[in-house]
Design a protein that fits this description.
Length: about 375
């Protein structure tokens, strides 16, 4: 998640209008809870669930009538398929919309990971299954599900609330039910994976505590409900009279794009001209050409690589090896991600801020 969005949503708790996807997903979840209500001797009929769905539907959420009609149709199809295939089942529903608070030890400090699980079932063999409903349009790979942190958190939550669920040789089944596709992908967590998940969560907690909550631009920004508060989008919502020189900055932006465009054109043309000059020089076996405005010379440059194992053998006896050692930062960052949480924490405590600067980049409207 974007750090800024996390801050707006969970620290500042800024309320935003419910999105179309959130409304759709919440209503489908409600319908499935009605269908599985354990207080009923038998599941409701399909028409009862569709009636509930229709009565709760809010067409005003959607600005486009065609989009609204398509979403409503999708909801009806999801519920019809679900009701027809889940009326009879060998499993017993243990709980719906289960709240949990799983403790997580970090030295002498205890954190609590909280959440809500859509459904917990007891299966015919006596084991248990955690089910999370998904109304997303895309279905991920099995590999994604096997490494999904949300399911690992659910595992911790279930074990915390019902310790007896984890029986020997009967690992808890963790499932994501993709309702649009009528498919369920399942996985399990070994003790090793649970330990790795705990370390990853502790690492995230450490990052959150140290974070300045700066926004990270990503493909989901266009759908973010917090744009009005985000430094990357706030300018879109500023009125002319609300800020100093707002009209002037628009002129500056327009000129910036104009110069940038001409610069890009010039760079492309320079590349074409360099190619033509090189081809001419190769064909005529020369390294300098003359024109009315001056001369252009080309020269050969060479880059060499060394066998550093052999270089080390030469320099170490002279105690010169340490003088040429440098850290490859990209590789260093990748290495840190593979380390256990306690080692990451130790390395993180050694870092100091050397410099901070702003970089300007531009994206022109198509």
């Amino acid at each position: 998640m974007c750090p800024a969005k996390y801050k707006f949503q969970y620290i500042e708790r800024i309320r935003t209008p419910k999105s179309k996807d959130a409304f759709f997903g919440t209503l489908i979840h409600e319908c499935l809870n009605v269908f599985h209500n354990p207080s009923q001797p038998t599941p409701p009929l399909e028409e009862d669930i569709l009636k509930y769905f229709t009565e709760k539907w809010d067409s005003e959420i959607y600005q486009d009538e065609q989009e609204e009609a398509f979403a409503f149709h999708q909801g009806v199809e999801i519920l019809k398929n679900y009701c027809s295939q889940n009326r009879k089942t060998d499993s017993i529903i243990v709980s719906l919309e289960t709240l949990f608070a799983a403790p997580l030890l970090d030295g002498e400090e205890t954190h609590y990971i909280t959440g809500r699980i859509d459904r917990v079932d007891k299966l015919a063999d006596g084991s248990f299954e955690v089910i999370d409903y998904k109304t997303t349009k895309k279905m991920p790979s099995q590999e994604y599900v096997d490494g999904n942190l949300q399911l690992s958190v659910y595992h911790l939550g279930v074990i915390s609330r019902w310790p007896s669920f984890q029986k020997e040789n009967q690992p808890i089944k963790l499932s994501l039910h993709f309702l649009r596709h009528n498919e369920k992908l399942s996985t399990q967590r070994s003790d090793k994976q649970v330990g790795e998940s705990k370390e990853k969560i502790l690492s995230l907690i450490s990052q959150i505590r140290e974070s300045a909550f700066e926004p990270i631009s990503n493909p989901l920004c266009d759908w973010c409900a917090f744009q009005r508060y985000c430094p990357l989008f706030r300018h879109k919502f500023i009125k002319e009279e609300e800020t100093i020189d707002n009209a002037k900055i628009k002129e500056v932006i327009a000129e910036y794009f104009d110069i940038k465009f001409k610069q890009n054109q010039s760079n492309r043309r320079l590349g074409e001209l360099k190619l033509a000059i090189n081809q001419y020089c190769d064909a005529n076996k020369i390294d300098r050409v003359f024109g009315e405005d001056g001369q252009i010379t080309r020269s050969t440059q060479k880059r060499f690589s060394y066998s550093f194992s052999k270089v080390r053998e030469i320099l170490e006896p002279m105690k010169k090896w340490n003088e040429i050692l440098t850290i490859d930062m990209p590789k260093f960052r990748k290495l840190i991600e593979t380390l256990p949480y306690h080692l990451k924490k130790e390395i993180d405590q050694t870092k100091t801020l050397e410099r901070e600067f702003k970089v300007i980049s531009a994206v022109k409207k198509k």
